[in-house]
């Protein structure tokens, strides 16, 4: 990759190439992940969503799959209650993580 | 995923249910197969079409799910399930998961953006099949960082240049600065532009006129002008200051006072400085701490304008309750304010003030005893007419003058003045002067004498009037002589009068005096009293009431003789007389001797004898006369403390030293003792009573104590004696106490009070004052 893109024509191109280069090395923020939600009472759901989705969106997806109402759902991890307006990426919820499903 | 056992159990429970459904079985089976397939596919690159990928994803998703489950469970699953992949969520058993497509559909329904599928995602690999991670190349990382920095710097520069590019720097030269031609060009351009602008404006106006809009435009402008604030708008505005605070000639800027946004009250103008000043003044007033309540203040006060101002109760709180009252005035039209009304009020106020009368009394001052010079001016002294008198009357004149000058006090002065007036009146009358003078002279003399004598003199003067006047002319010497004669006469008359007054009382006495001793009856010494040592002494004894008057022994002798005569007549009185004589005789030896002499001299020897008739006293006298009695008077004895009866009068101390003496033992009687037979019937009732110094009977204990004190030669100590004394006092008090009443005599007082009030009860009032001893005294 270095050999291919290392000699830019002008500054702008250089910038662009560099950013691309950087981008390649890191994982993207907005990517699809699958999160497992378990309520320990028999409901275990795997939900596909983006990293940039908020917890509220995730709750909606869960509700669609479990058949409850999304505003009745509380997602927790031990005692940490996930708030609706924060994105999954900010909560560092990665692919395959287990979330506890509770109801309020 | 941690709770494997539970999960397992649930799964077990559900498994039989699952097994009902064929598709689920198939699914399980399918899952396993797909798992293998997925692994193979994973190794390939991700750059594929979405749809195919989606299908695969679907499976892979399921596979993932299945992979996530514990291995134990998967092994359990029947691998014989069909290859029936069914998308859709599973409600029970296993993990419910949607495929990507379904998820996207759902998301579209919910209004979310579709899943962002990442191709690079799977580079790191899964837990089961970890890829070999790329080696971390620090050099690589450094290079990345450097590039990042450079990029950032370039970006910044670009932005700056863009900004700065708009501003003209000094260095950038305008073409027209140096080059005149360019400048000319430029100016021409500017002028042209101006013209163009003007033209445009004109055009616009014309257009406006065409459309009839110009009027409107004008009106708008005019409106604006009109709407602007003018002085006519100031009419009726309130200024919240006193009119006095504005002085002439100074400009004060007034601003609108703050008020709430929603308040609908009218506008008020104030000056900030004045407001602050007023506040400061108010604070100073408060700091002075004037008394809120004046108890002696008048109820209603009258204002300057003679307006009655009733005094309200607790007027100091009015400000708090009703709010501060602020003085204000309103502006008239055009913003002017006339102070005429205020000035008028002020003028009226002053007028009333001047007319007012003060109710103060003239201040009190010390009264002087004498007239002040000012008062004396108004006080006219009536001038006495000094009448020309003939020579003969000069004596009277002198008299008058003398007597007039002497000041005997107001009474005499008053009388004198009155008499002066009388005199003047008399003089002015037709009476002959000498008569008047005579009358006047008499009163003059009268002033110097006492009242009754004056009265007497008045009489005398009346008499004198008829006697004295000699109408012929006198020479001075003769006048004097006459004066002397008159004085003499008056003196004599005075004396006579005095004698007359007191005469009756002493008349007999004087007679007696004269009869007894004519020698002593000098006219000069008639009034003298003779003192004699013995007579004085006798007088003080006071036995004979009439004795002390004259103080002459001879009188006493007479009286004695008199009494003796009486005694001869009857014996009844004799005792008292004799007593007197006896008294005489016992007290004073000399006197007694004299008396004796007298008695012997005056009486015959036969007088001694008749003792039979008289009593003991006579006999005693006789004896005394004969020398049988010892008449020496014993000294009047003060009651002497009798010597304390010593207890050991009845008690003897056995001398123990003598016991063992052989000679004394020999003398000892060791015989048999027996009561006397003669004294068989003698049974004396022996009661030995011991007495202390005050005469009280002693108990055996006290008696013994007394004895011991006597024996040892010393008494009790201080405390003991004090205690004893106290006990004795208490006993005395106890004896003194009344049995029927309290120590303070309350019952007696009570009865007294009842008697005085004539009620059978007594009122106990509440306050302690009425129950004082002062009120319950007799």
UniProtKB/TrEMBL annotation, chain A:
Superkingdom, taxonomy of origin: Eukaryota
Domain Ubiquitin-like: 33-104
Signal peptide: none
Phosphoprotein listed as a keyword: no
PROSITE patterns: UBIQUITIN_2
Keywords, comma-separated and alphabetical: Ubl conjugation pathway
Described purpose of this protein according to its UniProt entry: Ubiquitin-like protein that plays a role in cell proliferation and sister chromatid cohesion by associating with spliceosomal proteins. Participates thereby in pre-mRNA splicing by maintaining spliceosome integrity. Promotes the functional integrity of the Fanconi anemia DNA repair pathway by interacting with FANCI component and subsequently mediating the formation of FANCI homodimers. Also plays a protective role against ER stress-induced apoptosis.
Subunit annotation: Interacts with CLK1, CLK3 and CLK4. Interacts with coilin/COIL. Interacts with spliceosome components SART1 and EFTUD2. Interacts with FANCI; this interaction promotes FANCI dimerization.
Protein name: Ubiquitin-like protein 5
